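Dear support,

I submitted the protein below through the web form. The confirmation email said the job was done, but the results page showed an empty box. After a refresh the structure appeared. I'm attaching both so you can tell me whether what I see now is the final result or a partial one.
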Amino acid sequence: MPTVEASPGVSIAYETFGDPSDPTVLLVMGFSAQMIAWHEDFCRALAERGRHVIRYDNRDCGLSTKFDDHPVDIGRFVEAVTSGDISSALSMVPYTLQDMADDGLGLLTALGIERAHVVGSSMGGMIAQTMAVSRPTRVLTLTSMMSSTGEPDYGRPGAEAQAVLFGPKPPDREGYVAAAERELVWCSKRYGDPALLRELAAESYDRAHYPAGVGRQLGAMILGGSRADALRGLGVPTLVIHGLDDTLIDPSGGRRTADLVPGAKLLLIPDMGHDRPRELWPEIIDALDAHTR
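What the results page shows now:
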């Protein structure tokens, strides 16, 4: 797996699909998920539409740089945030959402790519929004998928989904894979498949199981704050995609994003949750194809 130094001291693992001479689509994955959550078949299908597709591991995940010297106690962090002790919370987290955005842009720079279509999923959507806001000349188009604006009143998770997201996961491989079925709570009600959840969990565990990075990524995401004002002034062509079955980031997060960004297009997909079921790939890829022309 190739890696490049995308930011000072940070190596990013990545994989490409398609012809490098085609327009580049950078796929940004979400919280605690490795780049393989962008399924290889999905990437190849998008590349077949004439796109140079790049997927990569965020810092503290997969095969990219880990921040082992900065352990984060999630319980203490959440307590500091909820009590309003933001200075203490900030001191616990070694990097920001902007740093994660700079990693993606740094990856493009290292590969000799000046501008790209940026597609972000969940926390990856927040990272992608940050890329577009901070470096609009580098972003040809933005697609924010199953994400939100950082405003606490929008995109709130359901209680059950939140409990699954922050609940402890078994450390052993067998338990970890079995526990993946809990994620059905936020998946498509029609197409959610426990076997596929177990398959991705097994592949992720074997490739680079690294629960220590979860707290740091969570801290960066929570402390990123609201992007509302910045999104109101964003001039990058924007597509917002959200599943109506999503209980992890409520569809209000997608609606709010589209409301804020001038001229944004909103695609609400029935039977899609906080996932990308293969059955819905044609609709999603058609939308990406049209938006990135």
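Response: this is the final, complete result; the empty box was a page-load delay. The chain has a mean pLDDT of 96.
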